[in-house]
Records
---
Amino acid sequence: MTDDYVEIARQGRLASALHTAGYKLTGPRLAVLYVLEMELCHASPQEVYERGVAIYPALGLSTVYRTLDILTELGLARPAYLGDASQRFTVHHDQRHYHLVCDACGAITDVDEDRITELACSLAAGLGFKPRGQYLEIYGLCQHCQAQPARPPVN
Amino acid sequence: MTDDYVEIARQGRLASALHTAGYKLTGPRLAVLYVLEMELCHASPQEVYERGVAIYPALGLSTVYRTLDILTELGLARPAYLGDASQRFTVHHDQRHYHLVCDACGAITDVDEDRITELACSLAAGLGFKPRGQYLEIYGLCQHCQAQPARPPVN
DNA sequence: CCGGTAATTGAAATTCTTTCTCAGCTAGAA
DNA sequence: TTCTAGCTGAGAAAGAATTTCAATTACCGG
């Protein structure tokens, strides 16, 4: 495990946005961005921290929270409750976050659908609301868990 | 302030659902349901508690959490992050929760739009997903805050 | 390439939120 | 009215998030 993550993260979309906004690209910060971009799109701060420590051992939990806050402020992440048991989760994407969340196994599937975006925007416009982003979550049963009546599969 | 809340809450949609599911309709529980139904559609447990105590002084915070859990389990409420500063919030409605959330003042506007429901359902169906409910949040600036460049209005 | 400085850092303390425990109480069926 | 499973509040405990602070560091300008 070398320091490749620095170069990889530095070239990423998130790092670029932070830099543009005037934030410094430090080692710990890049480790967090690397985790979010390459490993975990949807994760709790704790999970991000655990993965981050594997990359940058001195990483502190505070830095994870701080970085997630910055990303949220820049509109690159957002807090959400995904599924039942999960605590505070954060996700990232452009300005659209569309998810299918399985009630049984907790699996999260990303969906990208322009029609929803259009519909939501026209809806907001009709009410004089200026949208910055949007979040759609459909919860229910994934294909796997519909077949399997009792026990959840993986997670 | 009499005990009218008992009769009012007892006749509500939430109380009826709890009763059908076999839960007892107790004083503390009805106070929470009253608050949720008549006063606060979108609220943190703490806020529900504060209002609830005004109605039923002996109310405990545990009961608020427990009642919100039951409502969530029955699909009548759901946890969500609404806006920036807010902590864990819960909302209630049938199975559809569509919100416009203002980034500046935190105002939450409910939206009811069949087209979104249809679109989301057809989307899910195409992926073999069986939807139980859905949640859409559009965040941005409300009409008021677009005009007012600096300071948020009420809250 | 180097120095200065304001931003950033991790650890620890703190605060806030949520869950658990338990002995007493109560709604509602019989 | 009686009985009992379910419900209660208080306090303790666990868990999550934020704050503080002295030490460190990215990176701009020279």
---
Amino acid sequence: MIPQKTFIEVIADGEGIFQPSLSLDCVIFGFHENELKVLLIKLRTNDNWALPGGFVFKEEDLDDAATRVLKERTGINDIFLQQFHVFGSANRSDWNIHRSNLKKDGIEIGPNHWLLKRFITVGYYALVEFAHVIATPDSSSEDCKWWDINEIDELFMDHKQILDKALDTLRLQLNHLPIGYNLLPQKFTMPELQKLYETILNKTLDRRNFQRKMTSFGILKRLKETRKGGAHRAPFLYSFDMRKYRKALKQGLHGGW
Amino acid sequence: MIPQKTFIEVIADGEGIFQPSLSLDCVIFGFHENELKVLLIKLRTNDNWALPGGFVFKEEDLDDAATRVLKERTGINDIFLQQFHVFGSANRSDWNIHRSNLKKDGIEIGPNHWLLKRFITVGYYALVEFAHVIATPDSSSEDCKWWDINEIDELFMDHKQILDKALDTLRLQLNHLPIGYNLLPQKFTMPELQKLYETILNKTLDRRNFQRKMTSFGILKRLKETRKGGAHRAPFLYSFDMRKYRKALKQGLHGGW
DNA sequence: TAGCATTGTGTCATAACGACGCATTCGATG
DNA sequence: CATCGAATGCGTCGTTATGACACAATGCTA
């Protein structure tokens, strides 16, 4: 865990090192036990959980900043990360709550402090392999863990709206991107892939039609192994055919569920 | 034309009235004589043409700022306007060119001037009815006019990239949104609508299949009038059925061309 | 070893799609 | 005013994609 001193330093020096009034928030999706999960952090200064976010260094590309935040929270380097929306309401940031909470924490900031200014935030969403993530709180938070997408009611500030927008975007992109690759382990079964789609789309799909369509994309390789131990007939394992997968990424999948 | 004094004032006072280091740029699409057009402005301080843009007032919603810029440039109030991407490279803004050009214009700014700082810009695209637009230059520009989408090679800073990204987005959205409504006059013919789609997609479509698909959406009303004077058989006029149109907007059109 | 739940594979009717034919209608032409 | 060219309205046909469902195969369990 990063020592709290860093947190105080950031609070003090932020104005000099970050792009002013600009933040980014990451909606990090994972898939585990047939449930879609989101990685959230628990701020020390607020009761609600929040999306992991950060600020942009003065000389840093926006996308690089998002990659950095993700790396810091998950330990993962090379992941699917995509900007999806900017949230720019004039009244979206209410850091005054923060201010009083910071005070409890022993940190005092003036009324003109950079953190209290109005912030625009850029939303990114990421798709990561659940098992590879090492959830790591940042210097401002006391916890960092996965939440089931359906168990999230209220979040810090407008983060719930940001999450919802990310989900909408994900659903739209599902028809254009072969999304499974980033969320599933290297080897997976067709039922697992289907569950992923069903969870994201929030509807049930016909098992046989799903398989037909999925294989028709030609981006899957059926392995010779099966997943034993499932108390029933052992399903085949699949993996993505990276060559065809990348090709499909460019052209779009043209799906309709 | 707004007097240049305002321009000088904005340059001088910008830091106090705008969100820092944040701008927005609008890609305003129109359709005229079977060509897709974009509204561009000619900056006084630069040789290249640019996208109309602006800054965000400290108390102003980001979307409101975009609406305001659009209103100022086109005179149109109620239009289709959508945020599509944030451009946040650290080196994207090179206002130093600006600085020397401003100098020629008799305006001197110091090295720490707010305009010279790094800017993040939010891209919006708008669909407007060509004939309704009254192209109006802003205080920093000497001209404002429509350009054919295919005649644009180089633009100010990274504006060409922004334009290209807007076009990509428009093509993607074409399958989800009944886009014609915003770009065509209230009454239009099927060949006109088809030309619009062909122009945006940059490919030819089969006349009969286009008609079949378009009508199958059920968002068009065929009027009893025809467009005479076209040197050939007079095509029927159509208009959008707003009730069904709005319904379709929510559900998506599920098209594939 | 029988039973059960789940997976693998196939069928069938219907809808959507792409390519194309033909008759109709407008202005232009003489 | 009859004829022609060009564009439009409307329809056909074969192929493919889709949605709903049947049946056999497999692996654990009792």
